[in-house]
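Standup notes
- DV: blocked on the single-chain target, sequence here:
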Amino acid sequence: MRFSSSTSAHSALIIFASFVAETDAFYNYFQVMANHPNALKDGGHNHLMTPNRSESTSPDDRSLRDGSHNHPLPDTMETIQTRLAALNLHLPPPGAPKANYQLVHRDGDLLYLSGHLPTNPDGTLIVGACAPPHVIEGDDSQKWLSTEQGYEAARRCALNLLSTLQSYLSTHVQIQPSASSVSQPADLSQIKIVKLFGIVRSHNDFVEQHLVMNGASDVLKQALGNDMGGCHARSAIGTNSLPLGICVEIEMIAKMRGGN
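- DV (later): unblocked, structure below
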């Protein structure tokens, strides 16, 4: 087949125009990719994707990316004291060891607290043994305590543990809130409760030691919040005797979040 010169020129113009159009398209394509690297993440070639949530720069989206929506800002000591006051509770004065041991032993960022005793607001010890209802009924000796009374005694142990912690932190541990700030004494807001170990003085038929220990766990959760105070490991056992006739004794392991 033969083409006239005019036809050949026309075809050449069409080919040249197509080349220019494709060149322009490629230029635009690479410009888009340079400015919007996510344009093809969904496999499309003709449109841009909206930024996905993980690349958003808004504060709310950053909180979703790093999980901070599940971890509110840390409490302050004032917050903790306000929570206790709302429960009509307060930290008693820190006690002293009853024998040859330390109340607190530090190993790295862990604090091991010796067994703490239950005290009434007036400072007297809560004594007796926990027993089931059928043992308590008809016994006027007042040496038996109900599960509810044991629960309250465990609450008092927890308050004494927190008091010891606060006293130790404020006198032995310094924190620096930011690189440019001055060091200051630590407090309970820098603490996470790791584990409790409770020993409940019990009648042979008493099997609710775990319910007694709820008294301590509940106070720690109420005072420090669920993440810092409520999410701890725990053990509870019964025994027929405890020092000084007390009804419950509780040990604690706590972890410091920073501090020297």
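- Follow-up: The beta strands are 104-107, 110-116, 129-130, 144-145, 174-175, 184-185, 191-201, 233-239, 248-256.
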